[in-house]
Specification:
Largest sheet: none
Shape: elongated
Structural class: mainly alpha
Number of helices: 4
Helix content: 40-55%
Oligomer: single chain
Order of helices and strands: HHHH
Strand content: under 5%
Length: 56
Amino acid sequence: MQKTIKGTIDILKNSKSAAAFTGADISVESMIVPFRGENGIWNKKEKEHLAVTKLL
């Protein structure tokens, strides 16, 4: 397990960028505007501008 963690740390240190997929509400706790809810992006903009219409 320790070897796997060290390997992951090395990969992240040597990367130009990284992404993390998290569960619901992590954005709110991090002060990132959520998509849903009272102040969510879906309520502030027209959905057509956010949706990928080619997939619909």
